[in-house]
Amino acid sequence: MARLIVYYAHPGHPFSQSNQPMAEMASALDGITFVDLYREYPRFDIDADVEQQRLLDHDVILFQFPLFWYSTPSIVKEWQDLVLEHGFAYGSGGDKLRGKTMMLAITAAGPEDAYSTGGYQHWPMRDFLRPLEQTARLCDMRFAPPYVLYGSLKAPGDGRLVHHVENYQRLLEAIRDDRYDWDAAAVLDVIDSNSIPARAAG
User: Fold this and answer.
1) Model confidence over 65-109: pLDDT tens digits?
2) Cβ(151)–Cβ(193) under 8 Å?
3) Beta carbons of 10 and 73 less than 8 angstroms apart
4) Segment 53-63, tens digit of pLDDT
5) Residue pair 194/18 in contact by the 8 Å Cβ criterion
6) Secondary structure string (H, E, C) spanning the chain
7) How far apart are CA 106 and CA 67, in angstroms?
8) Alpha-carbon torsion angle 100, 106, 110, 116, nearest 10
9) Inter-residue contact 186 to 144 (CB < 8 Å)
10) How far apart are the first and last CA of the chain?
C-alpha cells in the first residue's frame, strides 16, 4: 500500500458546497492521513518539524483546495515557505522528498472551456499550476496531473458533485492500494471523474 496524506485547505470550509463533501469523504477513509490545515493551524503557526516528519512518513502528498485567484489559499503558501526548507526539500543535502509524488485535487468556479486559449481565462488550467509543478520538480518529486472539478459552484445543483465525490474516493483508494496508473495519468494535463486511470482491484 502507498502511504498517502491529504492536506486540505479551505478557509471557508463550513460554507463550501463542493470541497466540504470531498473533505468529509477523504477524512473518513481508512489507511489515509488527512490534515485540515486551517483547523490545525488557525493562527498559521505551522509546526515545520511536525510537517516535515509527515512528509517523510508518506509517499504521496495530495493537496486539496479551491483555486483562489489562480493560486492556492494562503495557508498553503505559508506551509510551503516554512516546511520546504533548504537542506530538507531542496539544495545542498535537501533530498528528503526525492522520489515522492505531489498531486492536487482542486475546484474551480469557472467552466472547463474558460481554461483554454480561447476561453476567458486565456490559458489551460495546468498553466496556472506551474509554480506548484516547479516546486515539486525542485524537490525532486513527481508532479501528477491534478484532479479537477470545473464549474464547482454549479456542480451541486446539476448533479455532477455526487459523481465527482464518488470518483474522488475511487482515486484516493486506488492511490492507497497501489492501483493508480501513474504512467497512464502522466500523458494527461488534468484528470476528472471520467478519466481516472486506476487498475481493477485483485
Assistant:
1) 999 999 999 999 999 999 999 999 999 999 999 999 999 999 999
2) no
3) yes
4) 999 999 999 99
5) no
6) CCCEEEEECCCCHHHCCCHHHHHHHHHHCCCEEEEEHHHHCCCCCCCHHHHHHHHHCCCEEEEEEECECCECCHHHHHHHHHHCCECCCECCCCCCCCCCEEEEEEECCCCHHHCCCCCCCCCCHHHHCHHHHHHHHHCCCEECCCEEECCCCCHHHHCHHHHHHHHHHHHHHHHHCCCECHHHHHCCCCECCCCCCECCCC
7) 6
8) 10
9) yes
10) 13
CB-based contact 6:64 (threshold 8 Å):
yes
CATH number of 4-186: 3.40.50.360
- The x, y and z cell numbers of residue 11, run together, are 478557509
Task: Supply 151's cell numbers.
Answer: 464549474
